[in-house]
Design goal:
It catalyses: L-glutamine + H2O = L-glutamate + NH4(+); N(2)-formyl-N(1)-(5-phospho-beta-D-ribosyl)glycinamide + L-glutamine + ATP + H2O = 2-formamido-N(1)-(5-O-phospho-beta-D-ribosyl)acetamidine + L-glutamate + ADP + phosphate + H(+). With 234 residues, the protein is an alpha/beta fold. The protein has helices at 16-25, 68-78, 88-95, 152-160, 220-233, and strands at residues 4-9, 29-34, 45-48, 83-86, 102-104, 112-120, 136-143, 147-149, 164-168, 180-184, 190-193.
């Protein structure tokens, strides 16, 4: 039986179909979940996709964090289910207090779209175990509210406990403190990041690499890591 990974659709989600395709690309079964439901349909992991949930009213991710299905997701995350939040999904995770800190308007006050270099700072999570510690990868980035903020105390804890999952390399595109691009929780099952791994899974459609244009597939390792983590839980 194939591993089943749920992808939640909220009003305003844009990358839910892309996330489903990434799940399918690694041989798992994508399961479409709806924001207004309370049923996770027995999935093995969950992806909160990118987009502009509820039009980003109040703050990006703030309303989505209160959606009915988030009650079940928070509970499942507390029991160890792998949960990945991508861009708007990362914003949901911090608004739901599954990850600390907050995300605000980019420092330059503009939407940004670029192929972004990242350093993998933690390769032992449910979504990063297929990487090497310190590995540099390239993942597409597109956001207007990607500036990561946190108190000095929180930043010290994140750095001291190894909870920074990804850090921007080469350039800090949005003013995130400590160049933070993504985080993990202490248990390693919840990961959030601003860049979009689901847009780097297939040659011909990913970032440019020295080998060829549009050949970058670094995003595949996120979903392959999830399969390994799920298999280890069974």
């Amino acid at each position: 039986m194939a591993t089943r990974i749920g992808v939640v659709t909220f009003p305003g989600s844009l990358d839910d179909r892309d996330a489903q395709r990434a799940v399918r690309h690694v041989g798992a079964e994508p399961v479409a979940l709806w924001h207004a439901d309370h049923d996770l349909q027995g999935v093995d992991a969950i992806v909160l996709p990118g987009g502009f949930s509820y039009g980003d009213y109040l703050r990006p991710g703030a309303i989505a964090a209160l959606a009915p299905i988030m009650t079940e997701i928070v509970e499942a995350a507390g029991k160890g289910m792998p949960v990945l939040g991508i861009c708007n999904g990362f914003q949901m995770l911090v608004e739901a207090h599954l990850l600390p800190g907050g995300l605000i308007r980019n420092a330059h006050q503009q939407f940004i779209r670029r192929d972004q270099r990242l350093v993998v700072e933690n390769a032992s999570t449910a979504w990063t175990n297929s990487f090497e510690q310190g590995q540099e990868i390239t993942i597409p980035l597109k956001n207007g509210d990607g500036g990561y903020i946190a108190s000095d105390e929180t930043l010290k804890q994140l750095e001291g406990d190894g909870l920074v999952a990804f850090r921007y390399a080469g350039i800090n595109p949005n003013g995130s403190l400590n160049d933070i691009a993504g985080l993990t929780n202490a248990a390693g099952n919840v990961v959030g990041l601003m860049p979009h791994p689901e847009h780097a899974i297939e040659e011909g459609f990913g970032p440019n690499t020295p080998a060829a244009m549009r050949s970058g597939v670094d995003g595949l390792a996120f979903f392959e890591s999830a399969l390994s983590a799920i298999s280890a839980r069974v």
